[in-house]
Amino acid sequence: MSNSVDKLFPEELAQKIKNRVLTDISISSLKPNPVNPPERTASNSAFLTLKKGIRELGVLETIHYCGDTMTLINGHRRTICAKANGIESLMAYRYDGLSKTERDILFKHLNTTSNSYSGSQMLHTFLCGGKVEDKYANDCNTIIQIGDYEKIGVGMEYLQTIRDKRKSPNSFLSGVYEYCKVIGDQSMREKNKVLYWMLYVGTAHRIKSLISLKCPAHLIKKAVNTKKPVLGTWVITAG
What we know:
Blueprint: H1 11-18, E1 21-26, H2 45-57, E2 63-66, E3 72-74, H3 76-84, E4 89-95, H4 100-112, H5 119-127, H6 134-148, H7 154-164, H8 169-183, H9 188-200, H10 204-212, H11 217-226, E5 230-231, E6 237-238
Parallel strand pairs: 2-4
Antiparallel strand pairs: 1-4, 2-3, 5-6
Helix pairs in contact: 2-3, 5-7, 6-7, 8-9, 8-10
């Protein structure tokens, strides 16, 4: 029996984390992390509450950044709110000698373990080359393969469209699988057709609801093939 224990971090990264340094850093010298989804720093009620709290009490939680690139790892909202309140410097943990992969691993740990991280936000991270769960990455790559059946590059366009819609690839992929099961055709050609339909004609939710409503398979397939919506509920026709 193996006595090995699964570890969150590679040994080398774990050592760099232990060697982090608490320092006072000028906000103006910090750079935003490209893998951080922009909606994470959007102005909403939670953001405004944080901004007010920082105005009254200052920044209570330490931020984290990469010392070699000055890129933020964690604390984007706190940094923005602090700057808006006229604060010029913050206490921060500096990590030295991080590779991009190590920075992405640390970003993922600090930003997704305690705060909700939606499938859409994770897609932003994936598209920017950041670290995501292996299953999620596999789903994204499957979307790419389905799109590239039509033409190389279309798969990435599909992913970008999903991101623009603020949706998760998982919803579209489950729609593809349900559709192909119902029509009895698992070919890449049919997967490409229904993925296109969900992106530009209907939605992933629409495909799945039609299937749950027992819409005849030939009507759903006709709508997908003709790139038209499916109208109605119980008496359903391809429009």
